[in-house]
Amino acid sequence: MKEFDYIIIGGGCAGLSLAYELEINEKLKDKTLAIIEPRLQYKKDKTWSFWKVASHNFDDCIKKSWENFTVNIPKKTKHIKCESYPYQSVDSGLFYEKINKRLKENKNISFFKNINEIDSKNSFIFNSVPSIKKDHRNIWQHFCGVEIETQNNFFDDEIFNLMDFDCEQRESVHFFYTLPYSKTTALVETTWLSRMNDSSKKDYDAQIKDYIENHLNLKNYKITYKEEGAIPLFYPLYEIEKNKINIGTAGGMTRLSTGYTFLNIQEHSRYICNNIDNISKTKKFEIAKKYQFLDDVFLRVLEKHPEKMPDIFFKMFKSSPKAVIKFLSNKSNFFEDLSIIFKMPKITFIKALFY
Ligand SMILES: Cc1cc2nc3c(=O)[nH]c(=O)nc-3n(C[C@H](O)[C@H](O)[C@H](O)COP(=O)(O)OP(=O)(O)OC[C@H]3O[C@@H](n4cnc5c(N)ncnc54)[C@H](O)[C@@H]3O)c2cc1C
Hints:
This protein is α/β, with parallel strands linked by helices.
């Protein structure tokens, strides 16, 4: 069986981002790479959105970028400008196509469906398949989104809605998210932060229909695409092994308070690429410890007081937009952290330290 210098397990966002980073930086000119990916074909299955707080390789896969957004709680709307850090949506279909086209040009890169097809004992492995122990107490961000099309102009495509909490909460945390790609097309998503075994929240189609028709007041539309998913708001198991690094969700690249992962994956890929010649001795890459700590406290509050979360999110956005965006994208400095922390209900958060 054939041996490879590197193996990437999982050719999804993290696996392909890393392979692309290595390829464009000429790290695979005299090294071999096997990518293990079971899917039979690549098609658009996700929309990755984030504030562009750092550069990345996929500007040509951006479906739309915005410089204004709103956050809503019942009877209150906050309008926020984000021209310094535009919010971008990457189309996964364009991302897969761009990367796979480039990787196929390099004969040192091979694709397999199963790791048993190759000899992996002497390779360095980058694993993006998370190992998740079933635990009913774990909190997930689970959601379903549809892209819709209207016949007449309906949306204001200059501004998107990040969180609309003006909807039923069912003793949990629930919001809608609307990304208008044009005046006639938008992604509308229902998002829950809750325990996964709670199937009572999964009547997604009915929730979305009700929101579009009775909240957005849009009656004539058609659904052109649907995506569904769940992001663990806890770190998957990560056993430290020689010659193996976890990447992507499996590697702890998700920001636990928000689910944002895409830009962290890009930063991790750059880090690995810069250290590839000495990778087995390279320090583990992590989201900064201060965010791990603050997100832990935040999720404790969320579990204990879901009813307070719409107000907490709304209050957070009363800080300077730059500070909030940098904080949520793990790029904030000490003073920006403090400005966010001071907006939080102090007693609730201090108590959460002792739950
Ligand atoms: C629907 C959805 C929308 C999201 N939207 C956003 C967003 O807007 N912004 C953001 O920052 N993050 C978002 N995320 C979170 C995160 O960015 C994505 O989950 C991202 O795809 C994570 O990348 P990954 O490589 O870790 O996992 P994946 O992209 O899921 O890649 C894992 C790959 O492993 C393959 N695989 C599975 N089993 C095996 C096996 N046994 N052997 C080999 N390969 C295997 C899978 O087929 C898949 O291709 C979203 C997640 C989902 C699910």
